[in-house]
Amino acid sequence: KVSAVDLRAARAGRAGAAMAAQRFARSAAAKTVMFNPESGSELSERGKELQAEMKQALLAQQKEDEDRLVEVKAGRAAAEYAKLKKKAVVEAGRMGKVSAVDLAAALDKLSLNADGKVIAALHRAFQKAEGAPCPSAKALLASVRIHLATLVAVVAGKPDRMALILKELETYTSDSDGRVDACVAALPKIVQTMYDADVLEEEVIMEWWAQHTAKQPELEVEIEPAQAHAEKVANDLEKANKNVKAAEVRLEECKKTAKLADKEVSNARTGGNPTSEEQLREKEARRADKHAKAALAQALPKHVALQKTAGELFNELPRAREAAAAAELAVKANIAITKALTPLIEWLAEDEDEDEDSDSDDE
């Protein structure tokens, strides 16, 4: 048997489903009109507004999806590059006493792709520089010149490999304050030497330069948030430590109170035929014992939770400070590299203009 309530609920469900179906149909019809003007239907002003809103929403969603896809692809590419670089640097370090003359042949035997061999060859030059891992500008330049023939061979006139050389030079000299101070000064002569030896071409250098100089505003913007985050974590950690200490004091007080209350309950226990005062004393002792145990039960997990928070902040603080320092270093390195290479870039630009003028005169 079906009750009247069940029947009404069933009818309501069917009515709701019908209304939902009608709304879906109207929505589908509206979309058909919006995106198929050939249908001949006229849109009201509100319909036009809805059409514009839907179009904007779809375009925004499409843009968001495209940006997310670009971000995912960039992340994957960065991860693959990091993996390749790690392997190449390790392989370069394993070459032992292989001389610069035999380096190209040794690289051919490695299970690295063309980009990996470029990275390995360049980092071999970095590793062999006197004073590495933080050589002087003079030592770094000398090592690059010794390995120049190998670099010519592995780059093989390919623009993408030339761009890789410039990327690795920038990354290496920007890796630490010590390298920025010691190695950046070598970049103009290194780039000039590679340019003269056809390891690098002018067009690739200028393209890399445009990207390098364009990064500075973005890098500067990242400093303040990174510093603010590090400062916030430090302040939060200080407060958390104070809270932990206060919770420790509270926990010890609760333990002592609970111990005393338990002892008082034992002393207040009555037997036989107790007086009203003895009964009252036992009752009060048990009430106090209950409150003491409840307070202890609250104090213990609170102390544990505060310790956990403080521990997380303690672990986060070095990372936050490292990120802030990295942001500052990135700006420092970018400015130093820009300052060091500007004369060479200006010379290359003038040389390019002279070549264009010469071509115009020939015509």
Short description:
By secondary structure, this protein is mainly alpha-helical. It has helices at 4-35, 45-93, 103-108, 114-128, 137-146, 148-155, 159-173, 177-183, 187-196, 202-268, 276-362.
Protein architecture, described:
- This protein is mostly helical and 363 residues long.
- It contains 11 helices and no strands.
- The chain has helices spanning 4-35, 45-93, 103-108, 114-128, 137-146, 148-155, 159-173, 177-183, 187-196, 202-268, 276-362.
- Helix 4 crosses helix 5 (137-146) and helix 10 (202-268) packs antiparallel against helix 11 (276-362).
- It is elongated, with a radius of gyration of 37 Å.
- Residues 32-39 have low confidence and may be disordered.
Topology:
Elements: H1 4-35, H2 45-93, H3 103-108, H4 114-128, H5 137-146, H6 148-155, H7 159-173, H8 177-183, H9 187-196, H10 202-268, H11 276-362
Helix pairs in contact: 2-4, 4-5, 4-6, 4-7, 5-9, 10-11
What is the N-to-C order of secondary-structure elements (H for helix, E for strand)? Answer: HHHHHHHHHHH
Give Rg in angstroms: 37 Å
General shape? elongated
Instruction: Bin the helical content.
Output: over 70%
**How far is the first residue's CA from the last residue's CA?**
101 Å
- Overall residue-averaged pLDDT value: 87
Low-confidence stretches: 32-39
Q: What share of the residues does DSSP label as strand, in percent?
A: under 5%
